[in-house]
Design goal:
Layout: H1 2-15, H2 32-39, E1 48-54, E2 57-65, E3 84-88, E4 94-95, E5 111-113, E6 121-122, E7 135-137, E8 163-165, H3 181-192, E9 199-201, E10 224-226, E11 247-249, H4 260-270, E12 277-279, E13 285-286, H5 292-298, E14 304-306, E15 312-315, E16 318-321, H6 335-361, H7 363-394
Parallel strand pairs: 2-3, 3-5, 4-6, 5-7, 7-8, 8-9, 9-10, 10-11, 11-12, 12-14, 13-15
Antiparallel strand pairs: 1-2, 15-16
Length: about 400
Amino acid sequence: MKKLCIIFLLVCLSTAQPPNDCDPNWHSLETDESARLECGEAFKNQCICRRTCYENRHQYVVNCTDSKFRSTDPLAHLPNETQVLIFTGNYLEELPWNVFGTLDSFPELRVIDMSNNKIREIRGKTYHHVQRVERLILDFNELSLDPDRSHPRVFSNFVSLLELHLTDAFEDARPDRPRDLAATLHDIFVNSNLKRLMKLHLEQNEISEFRDPNVFCDLPKILDLYLGDNALTALHFNISCLPSLRFLDLQRNKFTKILEQDLHAMDAIVEHNKNIAVDLTGNPLECSCKLNPFIKWMSQTKVFIRNKDNLKCYEGKTAHPIHEVKSCKVKLFSSASHGATILLFFLSLVLIGLVCALIYVQRTKLQKKIEPILDSVNKRVRYTSIATGEAREEV
């Protein structure tokens, strides 16, 4: 009887559910070997499937890190209780349709991490049965910007998505193909219906500008927008359509100054969200008069400047604490006056052209009026010449 009680107790301990919060004193009785077997034959003993501590909660995690798979076939055989899928470090150039199979399953799946898989193309019907997924990570892939390999509805089934991670996710620029990432992203955002998305990571994507200023306007719930480690020199996009924005990451870009229109745009967001913050550290700001409006703005704005005390400006390669330049001479030909001068020049040309056209149209009438005047002048010249000649003969 005593042995039966002990066996029963061991069974209870082995099947007991862990607490919601990760308890360091709780340990799964599973070994790595048994966890591999639990995945099933489709995973070829390359993955670990078990309940474990993930982000401070015990969750059922399928971990296929550096498993060297060359197809997504195992994903159609995920354990039904999977909450977190880590499928990274594989060779998956093209993701086919229905990577999770055709059956409606995986009701608990919340996180999909498919980073660092060398993915170039994701078909429009790749992801089905992901209605409850809240985080999708596709960092460090090589997604093509070729229109023939881009599928605008690629994320259309992620109706509950809260976080989208696309750090260094796109192919590098090529001489034979201009890189218009903004157009690709806008098509995706418009067609994927990501109305609940709160966090978007786009770091390390060589972004220098967004040709479409409304690229993010179809993401009305965005709270955090990460654009660090790119090549932006200004915002180049509309943030007035993001009323919930609370953090804008612009670290380590190419800002040498901050345009006043960008400062006004950030101030306008404060009216909707009192807690907006921006991070501009690591930018090559120039120690010049052009930086003075930004310095003045920092002392007055309600926007929280993260790491404000770490901001630097540069004179050549020498870094200095950011400071206002006092000896600023007013330039007679600022960018605004230069533009006005060009406009005035073109208007003058137009006016001259109109005058010439008017003279040409009225040339007959003008000729009739001018001829008597010219004849009168000629007669006076002749009379004067004759009088002058007679006077010389008398002398």
